[in-house]
TrEMBL record:
Signal peptide annotation: 1-27
Protein name: Alginate export family protein
Protein source organism: Novosphingobium silvae
Pfam families named among the record's database cross-references: Alginate_exp
UniProt entry tagged with the keyword Signal: yes
InterPro entries per UniProt: Alginate_export_dom, Alginate_Permeability_Chnl
Record domain Alginate export: where: 55-456
Membrane-spanning ranges: none
Amino acid sequence: MKRTNCACWGAALPGLLIAADCPPAQAQAQDRGGAKDPAKDWTLQEALGDPEGLTVTGALRVRYEAIGDQFRPGYRASEDALMLNTSIAAQYDSGPVRLAAELMDARVYGAGADSSISNNEVNALAFVQAYVGFDLGDGLGAGSTTSLEAGRFTMDLGSRRLSARNAFRNTLNAFTGFRAEYGGKDGTEVTAFYTLPTVRLPDDMAGIVDNKVESDSQSFDLTFWGVFASHPLGGGTKVEAYLLGLDEKDRPDTATRNRHLRTPGARVVRKPRAGGFDFEVEGAYQFGSVRSGTSLDAARQDVSAYFLQGTVGYTFALPVKPRLSFEYSVASGDRKGGAYNRFDTLYGARRFEFGPTSLYGPLGRANIRSPGVRLEVAPGPRWDVMAMYRAAWLESRTDSFSSTGVRDASGAAGSFAGQQVEARARYWLVPKRLQLEAGGAVLFNGAFLDTAANANGRGDPVYGYMQMTTTF
C-alpha cells in the first residue's frame, strides 16, 4: 500500500509544479529588489480596468489525494482522485444596494462507480451565491449597522460547527432565503435567517462520476432557520448564543427521515495571543423528532442529543509562534430504546477539528468522545505547520462510530475506536496569490474498528493529499 501511495504522489507532484509555473524563482527575484512581474500580480479586477463599485475575484484549487486501507464498509480498499475547484465571484456596490454572485465549478477525476465520493465532492457549474443586499445604516441606533440580504448565499455562524462555508471540502453549503444582520456600537452582533438549503445535483453515482452539469434545487420541503448573537466581554473574549431550526419532509423524488430539530447552544471563546492562554467552550442540545427510517410507516422518535467542545491553548512568545492546545470533543450517539440520541451537526464543518475529510474523514461530530493535543508553528511569514494527535472512543457502543459507517449493534466490539495522527504544512509560493499545501493522516484502528460486525479488517487507514491554490 505504501508503494501505491508513493507512486500516486510521484505522479501528482510534477503536474502541481507545472501548474505553479515555477513561481518561487519569480518571488525570489522580487525579494532581491528585482523588477515587478506583471504576470504574477495579474488579477481579474485589474484586467477589467478596476471599475468603480465592481469587485471581481477568482480562485482555482487543484488537489490530488489518496487513501489506502479504506475504513468505510462496502468500498474498495484504496483509491485516489484529482479534485478541481474553480470559482468566480463578483459584487456590485452602488451604495445602499449590493448585487453579488458566485459561480463555482467542483469536479473530480479518476473516481469510479465504486468510489466513496458523493455530491459533497462534485457540483459542476453551480451558482453558490446570487443575492441582493441592502445596507440600512444606523437606523437601529447611533453607531450601529443593519443589512438585509435576499437570494442564495453561503453562511458561517460562530465556530462554524453547525453552519459553515466549507474550506477543505470540494463543494459548498448554500442557502436560498433571507438574512438580516445587526452590528451594535458596543460590538454586539445579531444574525437572523430563514432559508431553503440547496440540494446539490446530481446526486446519483453515474452523474457524479461524469461531473454532470445539473441545476441545484431547493424547496420548502427542507428549511433551515435561526438566530445567532455574539457580544464581546473584553480582553479578546466573547460570548455567543444561538437557536437553530431544521425542518424536513419527504420530497416527491426523495423519502427522508422527516427531521424536525431544534438546536440551542452557547459558546465562550478567547482569541490566541503571544505569551498568553486562550480557551473555547461550546455546547449545544438538540431536541425535536425524527422518523426511525425513511419509509412512510416508520415510527416517529423524540430527539435528545448533544455535543460539547472544550479547548485550552497557550501561544509561546517566540519567533516561530508555537501554540500548544489540548482539546476534548464529545457528541452523543444513539442508544437502544427511547429517544433518538445521535447528534446532527446540520451544515457544520469538521476539517479544522477532526482532520481531513473528502476521501478520508472518519471522525466527525457524532457518537464520539475524543481528547487530543495540537501543535501549530509559523516558522516564517510564508509558511505554517500543524500536527495533531487524538484518541477516539464511541459515546454509544451500539451506534455507528462517528462518520465511518462501522457499527456493532450488540455492543460487543467495545468502545475504543482508535488513534489518529495528522499533519499539515502550507507555504506561500507567491504571497497572497499562490499557496502549496500538503498533509495527511493515519487512523490506527482500535478494537472496535478491527472487530465490529461490519468492519472490513483491512488495517489502519492511511491518507495523504497535496494541493495548489491560486487567487486572481
